Amino acid sequence: MSLETQTLPPKNASVKAAGDASLPRRTFAIISHPDAGKTTLTEKLLHAGGAVREAGEVRAKGDRRRAKSDWMAIEQQRGISVTSSVMTFEFDGIRFNLLDTPGHEDFSEDTYRTLTAVDCAVMVIDAAKGIESQTLKLFEVCRLRGIPIVTFINKIDREGVSPFELLDEIAEKLALDTAPMSWPIGMGGLFEGLYSFEHDCAFLAPQRGSGAGQTVEGIAPDSAELRSALTDSAAPLLEDLILAAEACPAFDREAFAAGDLTPVYFGSALKEIGVDHLLAALARYAPSPQPQPADPAPVQPDDDKVSGFIFKMQANMDPNHRDRIAFMRVCSGTLTRGMRLGNSRTGKAMGLHNPIFFLARDRAVVDEAQPGDIVGIPNHGTLRVGDTLSERSDLFFTGLPDFAPELLRRVRLEDPMKAKQMRRALIDLAEEGIARLFRPLLGSDWIVGVVGALQLQVIASRIEAEYGLSVGFDMVPYETARWIGAPDEASRKAFIARERASVAEDEDGALVFLARNAWQLQRLEEECPDLKFLAVKERQ
Ligand code: GDP
Fold first, then answer.
1. How far away, in angstroms, is 464 Cα from ligand 1 center?
2. Where does GTP bind (predicted)?
3. Which residues fall within 8 angstroms of residue 277, CB to CB, at 6 or more apart?
4. What are phi and psi of 113, to 5 degrees?
5. Ligand 1 within 6 A of 56 CB?
6. Long-range residue pairs from 422-425, CB within 8 A, at least 24 positions apart, any chain
């Protein structure tokens, strides 16, 4: 069944006088290895929701895309692109918030944090390649957070691995049960159709490139009708379909919600095959905004008091302005323009005079956000990744991870007279979450820690463009860093006394051990059993 053959609601059908508040929310992200088809799928999903009319728009750069965006003015004023960070669309009376995750693996930390702000993820797998490294990493973060996963096996219009093998691979590599919801009848040159177990219908590919294909409703996998609609060479493929229908486990909604089972959809984002099944599944099965882990207790989405946490910071690309956009997930209450919220970290209140509401296209302007929605908050450095904003004074969202850097470098300033400005620049970037910043207890060096080498280039060019400073990076004898968890003050002090030369503080003042290699780290772990050496620090 292609999107063309499905009756989509008219573009304005869901614009109700009651406004956004009345629509259920689904907040999700797409996780995949680069090239699996995330961008293409995003375009098609937005297209289906009427948010984008022309295919290619997500990818399109420059004026054409800007002219279409609802927040064009903000982008132009501030010179930043917020468009792709949050995309919203409506479909079937549901408002979808799709959070973009950067594809490049050097920026995976940003991706990880974005995953803390979603209730569900779509895992896109290339049918020819199966599970790739980046997919695996991102999946592990979803598992850590208990985020349910819907799988989309993409590119069935090309030769791929057999569906049975792909399902086995998911089960084995991810330790995740699978329930196929659809089944490709052949792939690549042999592709004849896509059967939906869920809708008991078959999309039949156009034969010999003619026409747009057709969908036949109410047809069984083992029916003579289906058999006669396919070519003779599809006979063995049909046997596979019948086997899958009989032998594969059924979808179990509870197991899905618990993150133990993934419904698997097959399709082609490029050819718009199976995308409608995926969208219907998100509408039907993806969880509504979930309670969020917090201290002293998880926050329920139906709590009246407004609360949210900052999961991403986007800096202004314009060097003349030092403002940034903080992206906040609303966790409870109805957030409105002008509202004052307290920041639990600083104890100070701030007025939300100019929040950016990400709205679906063709809607009347609605100045409020509901749980599950994302708002952009312009600020001049008052907000940080991990901050809690709320109407309650005693609330802290927990569980936003910081990851141990995999590359450490000493920052070298070309003009030593500018040390103070460099400090400011490094702290700003660390607060934005671009890099970890470490200050060794001995000496006056600054050490930056990043997840990938590309980030170092970004840091240097931003410091140059935004602060007018020229910096370089020198090697250090450390391979990685671990946050130190000590049971009490005495053991903390004892550890500092013992390892002073390798101990540093991060930008939040937390104690960090700079390790020369894995062997040294392992030895220390054995010798200091009362201490914890943490690769992931949860922001408290
Ligand atoms: P991303 O890196 O995951 O965002 O991947 P893209 O969406 O940019 O896709 C990578 C390449 O795969 C592009 O050349 C797409 O045109 C192509 N592609 C995406 N989906 C499909 C598909 O369903 N079938 C085929 N044949 N190619 C696809």
1. 35
2. 32-39, 100-104
3. 1, 181, 182, 196, 198, 199, 265, 267
4. -65, -35
5. no
6. 422/446, 422/463, 422/467, 422/469, 422/471, 424/467, 425/463, 425/466, 425/467, 425/469
The token duo for 88 is 């919203």
pLDDT at 366: 61
Residue 361 pLDDT: 52
Q: Does 184 contact ligand 1 (Cβ within 6 A)?
A: no
Burial of residue 427, with CB atoms counted within 10 A of its CB: 0-12 exposed, 13-18 middle, 19 or more buried: middle
Residue 489: DSSP 8-state? H
Handedness of CA 33, 167, 236, 228 (dihedral sign): negative
Its pTM stands at: 0.80
Q: Which helix (H) or strand (E) holds 153?
A: strand 149-154
| Amino acid letter for position 490 | A
pLDDT given at position 365:
55
Inter-CA distances, 450 with 69, 89, 205, 384, Å: 32, 34, 47, 18
* Beta strand pairing call for 120-126 and 149-154: parallel
Rounded Cα distance between 431 and 35, Å, is 31
408 burial class (0-12, 13-18, 19+ CB within 10 angstroms)?
Answer: buried
The single-letter code of the amino acid at 353 is H
Residues in binding site for GTP: 32-39, 100-104
Sketch out the chain's domains with CATH numbers.
29-84+107-181+251-285 (3.40.50.300), 294-397 (3.40.50.300), 401-538 (3.30.70.3280)
Which run of H or of E encompasses 428? helix 419-432
Q: Atom 15 in ligand 1: which residue has the minimum CA distance?
A: 37
Give the Cβ contact number of residue 214 at 10 Å.
Answer: 15
Q: Which atom of ligand 1 is nearest to the CA of 124?
A: 3
In this structure, the chain runs to a length of 540
CA-based torsion, 255, 257, 261, 265: positive or negative? positive
- pLDDT at residue 129 in the model: 97
Residues 6+ apart with CB under 8 A from 2: 203, 212, 213, 215, 271, 272, 273, 276
Name residues of the chain where pLDDT drops below 50. 1-19, 52-83, 362-364, 540
Write down the pLDDT at residue 87. Answer: 85
pLDDT at 414: 86
Parallel, antiparallel, or unpaired for β 201-204 and 214-216? antiparallel
